[in-house]
Every structure is written in C-alpha cells, then in structure tokens.
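Hi U.,

Before I forget, here's the chain from the pilot set. I'm dumping it here mostly so it's searchable later in email.
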Amino acid sequence: MFKAEDILQERYQLQRQLGRTAVGHQTWLAIDLQTNERVTIKLLAFSPQMRWEELKLFEREAQVLESLAHPRIPRYRDYFDLDKNTGGGVPWFALVQDYIPGISLQELLERGKRLSEKEVRAIAMQVLEILIYLHELSPPVLHRDIKPSNLILGEDQYIYLVDFGAVQAQAAVTGVTFTIVGTSGYAPLEQFWGRAVPASDIYALGATLIHLLAGIAPVELPQKDSRIQFADRVSIRGDLLAWIEKATETAIEKRFRSAREALETLRTGRLRPISRNIAAVSSGHKFPKPHDSLLRIERSADQLKVFVPAGGLRRFNEIFKIGFLGLIVLYWVLPFVSFFSIVLPGIGSVFWGILAIVLGVLCGTQTQISCDRVSFELARKILGITYKREMGINPEILDIFLQRTGSIFQVIIRSPDRIYNLGGALSEDEATWLAQEIKDWLRKSAMGEEI
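Structure:
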C-alpha cells in the first residue's frame, strides 16, 4: 500500500494522504519532482470489489478535466496506471491535478463556522461563473456533485470547484441510462433517476447555500412536497431567500433555465421574489369578495392595482369609541374649547381647523396600491389629491396579514424594517378577501403561472 515519500511514475513523491472517500479510493498531496510544485493525485484500485461504473467515471473525469481550462477548476496534469508490483498486488489508476491550497467549505462547517449572507452571495456568484463555463461548453459538462466538501476556499480567497468524479460530459437524452451519482440532500430527484441536466447543478448549489446559511445539512432539514424547508432557520434578505427557493424547486421547469440567468437574477435581485408565507398560499379554496364591498382590483400579468376606499363614517365611529375615560376627558375639555372659541375666536378656529384636518386624514384617505413584478407603491389621497407615497420592493415582503382595531380591519404588508398599512376601514370578510387576492397575485407572478 502507498505511504509518504513513495515516488510514483518516477516523478510524483507522495507527501500526505488527503482523503479516502471509499474502499480503493485515495487522494494524496504530492510533489512533482520535475517542477517542484505541489499536486493532488487521485488513486483508484482496480480490485475485485470495484464496480465497473467506478472505472468508467474515473476515466471520464480524466478525459473531461483534460479538456477544461478555467482558473477556478484544478488543472489536469497527468493520467497513468500502476502495475501490481507498485500497487501492493493490485493495479491502480492515477489522476494528477493542480493542488489548491485552502480549506473546503465542509471543513468550515464542521468547525462551527456560520457564513454571513454577504459571504454566501459571493460564493454563489463565483460557483455560478464556473457553471456558466461548464454548461456552455459543447457538449455541456455537468458536475453532478456540488456540495460543501467539493468547494474549496483558496488561500487567495477565491472559490474552487473540485472533484469531478461524478462529471457528465453530455446532456441527458431521453431513453439513455446514465450512471446514477450524487450526494443525498444536494442532488435533485431527477439526478437519481439518471437524468441530470444543467438545472441539476443549480439545485445542488442552492442546497449547498442552505447548508452554509443554516449550518444544517439539507438531508437533515424537514421537507414538504419534496421541498427543503429552511426559511425559518436563516435570517437573510427576501431576494436571496426567494432565489434559493427557486434554485431548489423540485420541478426542473420551475428552476432557473441556466446558470447565466441564475447569476444575472442574483446580481440584480429582479426575481419577482416573495416570501415562503406568500408563496405557500393555497390556490384551492378562494374566499369570495363581499357583494357590498367598494374595494376594487385591476390585475394583469405584469401589474396589480388595488383601490381601497376611505374609511368614512365607519372609521369615524371607531375613532370616537373611546370609552368612559375618553368621555370624562371630553366633558372637561370641550367646555374650555367652547369658551376660548367665544373669547378668542382665532384660537378656537385654529383648534377646530386642526381637528377637521386630522379627522379628514383619518376618515377621508383613500389608498391606491400599485404592484409590479419587482416593487409596490402606496399612494394616499384625499379628494383625489395625492399627499403621501410609500414604496417597497417585493423581495422584502415577509408577510401579508390582517390587523383589527375594534370592529374594523385593515391589511398590513410587513417587511424586515417597516410596516405598510393599506388603510380603509374594512370588514373582516373584505380584509380577508383583499389579503388573499394580493398574496395570490404575488405567488402566481413569482412562479410564472398564468394570471
């Protein structure tokens, strides 16, 4: 068996063993005596226990690596076999690559390291750059085993993609059976059916990001409808949350179409993302609009407009339901106001003017909500004149819920740093219907469903 200081092929001197992934598989750090550079040597034993598919994958890895040229993929250097005398009675195959000094993301996780959102975004972008290169080759090259242990954070602080032992050098073709490879928790379902596609690598990247953010392997997280449930384990911006959710969709057609699209979306945040709470709204039972409601909605595939009428008398009545203490205050305050209105007409006029303005705003404000695939805007109006605008972006919507004040209800949009009140003085049925309609439009818009 091999040991440190052994020299293979009269050129490569073994230094230390880096890993033993399975019986008959070894990885060594070695010195290339011709160049005095460090290299990585992967060894495969041609033993009776070895499955034929293992040799096929090993040879395919060597062939594919020899054809690749990317600064973040270890460079192919050599491929050779060793006879029984050298390999302890068993023939061995050897693949030599550049050595990448650094640490795997799996090792960081095992040390208890939790990566920040900024670090995870940077990792995702770097891996996507590599995937763009691989997937846009002719034919496309699929890695098929992206996971934390196969991503190396180099000493130069760049991410490197290693271990192409599961690589597939052609796109999946109907009716063709491929060797089933991948790691549970990171590989999507179609890959275990032998039908990997470029979107399969994107899924594995998404699952890897979940592990980096949550500190828990995807296979250990709960699942619902074959989707990884992780939103409650992480604290990240809505656009990244939605990006990962889309990347890890069970259905291939719901994921990003390409690594290039995934990278562009991650950079710009233009995903049309929404939170898991909104995305989970059932499209089954629909709550009907109350027949006497003055709420009005206009919708299309690209825009949703909601018109919330002023609260009017319903809001006025609620404001003045102030209880016994409020009546006592009014009992003492109003006589003084009336007195000063007579003695000092100017002060009384100012008071009643201010009161009229306040009541006008509280009871007479109409709200118009305009929402497109990226952002939303609330316009507050009195007598058709806009006096206030509030804006937000869809990626940061955490939830849409009802708020009750006495007998009236309002719909609230919540983001990480603020709350948007949609105004009005709605009945419970109206508010329930309105929240449902907004959620449903956002869900369909984000999922690309017909509206």
